[in-house]
Design a protein that fits this description.
Layout (H helix, E strand, L loop, with lengths): L12 E5 L4 H12 L3 E6 L2 H10 L8 E4 L5 H15 L4 E4 L14 H29 L2 E6 L3 H4 L5 H21 L4 E8 L5 H6 L2 H10 L8 H12 L10 E4 L5
Parallel strand pairs: 1-2, 1-4, 2-3, 4-5, 5-6, 6-7
The structure holds nicotinamide-adenine-dinucleotide (NAD).
The site of nicotinamide-adenine-dinucleotide has 29 residues, from helix 1, strand 2 and helix 7.
């Protein structure tokens, strides 16, 4: 496959949450290979360190700080450190999430709060933390990772899907709040992406069912989501804001 090269991404300062594995890992790699300066947080140190090692050959090696994004105060502090390291911030990819299955019966008030913290709350506060740097730079791009799950109404994911539905509202609200600062805000809605973690949930039969429900054959890869993130961060998408960009192979 021949992929696009975006000259506007060279040297662009990019912060990614949950960049240590899965889609986030592909996003970190894709931006780094475009010549962007990438900094990411994750709760998992080993895969993050391994990713840094794997990308040792890029012009600007990515920078990693361990952070639990559910601790809002600490996350805000760590974003400050990442901005200081990069010398600014042009792009924020709000990617970290956790799609642990939960039955309707087992959801307690504490579990609800914890799911909302890991799947929704950090996206708003990360945006708030980077906006001053984006304003200083004359603009920026914020990309929130949503999910096809609530559009389909999948089972055993009530709180995750509630959070993912809210992200689309968050995107539209932030796009309105920040548009006059030339800060664009969009949602990427992945379909079912073949990440190592997803393979835990799906048997080969279940994967075949998903492919049968897609319009296109084949399994979506993390790099396919990263390709959309690159476009939404590049100048090529300069009039794209407040909307959803689906990468789902037409899954209905
Ligand atoms: N994979 C899919 O099929 C799919 C489908 C729809 C939406 N999405 C969305 O795409 C995004 C990435 O999904 P993924 O499949 O790569 O997920 P993943 O679980 O494979 O990776 C998520 C990353 O976030 C990190 N993370 C989790 N909790 C954290 C915390 N508290 N603090 C810091 N880091 C934390 C994890 O360590 C991991 O590296 C998520 O927002 C997810 O909801 C994925």
């Amino acid at each position: 496959m021949h992929s696009a090269i975006y000259p506007s991404l060279v040297g662009r300062k990019v912060i990614v949450s949950g960049g240590g594995s899965g889609i986030g890992e592909a996003v970190v790699e894709a931006f780094a290979r475009q010549g962007a300066a990438v900094a990411f947080v994750d709760i998992q140190e080993d895969p993050s360190a391994e990713l840094i090692r794997r990308l040792a050959d890029v012009d600007i090696p990515p920078h990693f700080i361990r952070c639990d994004i559910t601790d809002c105060a600490d996350y805000g502090h760590k974003i400050g450190k990442l901005i200081a390291h990069l010398g600014g911030c042009d792009v924020l990819i709000n990617n970290a999430a956790n799609d642990d299955r939960h039955s309707f019966e087992e959801v307690t008030p504490a579990y609800w709060d914890e799911r909302i913290a890991v799947n929704l709350k950090h996206q708003f506060f990360a945006a708030k933390a980077v906006v001053p740097a984006m304003r200083a730079a004359g603009g920026g791009s914020i990309v929130n990772l949503g999910s096809i799950s609530w559009h389909l109404g999948l089972k055993d994911l009530v709180v995750y899907q509630t959070a993912k539905a809210a992200i689309e509202g968050l995107t539209r609200s932030l796009a309105r709040e920040l548009g006059r600062d030339n800060i664009r805000v969009n949602t990427i809605i992945p379909g079912n992406v073949q990440t190592p973690r997803q393979m835990k949930w799906y048997s080969p039969e279940a994967e075949a069912e998903i492919v049968a429900a897609q319009c296109l054959d084949g399994r979506i890869q993390p790099a396919d989501i990263a390709a959309m993130a690159l476009f939404l961060a590049a100048d090529d998408s300069r009039f794209c804001t407040a909307h959803n960009y689906w990468v789902d192979a037409g899954w209905r």
